[in-house]
From TrEMBL:
<comment type="similarity">
    <text>Belongs to the TatA/E family.</text>
</comment>
<protein>
    <recommendedName>
        <fullName>Sec-independent protein translocase protein TatA</fullName>
    </recommendedName>
</protein>
<keyword id="KW-0997">Cell inner membrane</keyword>
<comment type="function">
    <text>Part of the twin-arginine translocation (Tat) system that transports large folded proteins containing a characteristic twin-arginine motif in their signal peptide across membranes. TatA could form the protein-conducting channel of the Tat system.</text>
</comment>
<keyword id="KW-0811">Translocation</keyword>
<feature type="transmembrane region" description="Helical">
    <location>
        <begin position="6"/>
        <end position="22"/>
    </location>
</feature>
<dbReference type="InterPro" id="IPR003369">
    <property type="entry name" value="TatA/B/E"/>
</dbReference>
<keyword id="KW-0472">Membrane</keyword>
<keyword id="KW-0813">Transport</keyword>
<keyword id="KW-1003">Cell membrane</keyword>
<dbReference type="InterPro" id="IPR006312">
    <property type="entry name" value="TatA/E"/>
</dbReference>
<comment type="subunit">
    <text>The Tat system comprises two distinct complexes: a TatABC complex, containing multiple copies of TatA, TatB and TatC subunits, and a separate TatA complex, containing only TatA subunits. Substrates initially bind to the TatABC complex, which probably triggers association of the separate TatA complex to form the active translocon.</text>
</comment>
<feature type="region of interest" description="Disordered">
    <location>
        <begin position="49"/>
        <end position="68"/>
    </location>
</feature>
<keyword id="KW-0812">Transmembrane</keyword>
<keyword id="KW-1133">Transmembrane helix</keyword>
<dbReference type="Pfam" id="PF02416">
    <property type="entry name" value="TatA_B_E"/>
</dbReference>
<keyword id="KW-0653">Protein transport</keyword>
Length: 68
């Protein structure tokens, strides 16, 4: 159990190739995650702007001329 056999190294090599091999699958996944986070933050900013634009008007007091 203490020493690594050829099968252990083969499994480690396959996992490393899957993660880092090809056209940068891991970096592509991280890039997609970063884009998702950026889109989420932009959505929150847009929501804050919409809330600021939709502030209710201040209440106005209207008196009835005929009620006096």
């Amino acid at each position: 159990m203490g020493s690594m056999s050829i099968w252990h190294w083969a499994i480690v090599a396959v996992v490393a190739l899957l993660l880092f091999g090809g056209r940068g699958k891991l970096s592509g996944l991280m890039g997609d995650a970063a884009k998702g986070i950026k889109a989420f933050k932009d959505g929150l900013k847009d929501e804050d702007v919409k809330k600021d634009e939709a502030k209710p008007e201040t209440a106005k007091t209207v008196t009835d001329k005929d009620a006096a």
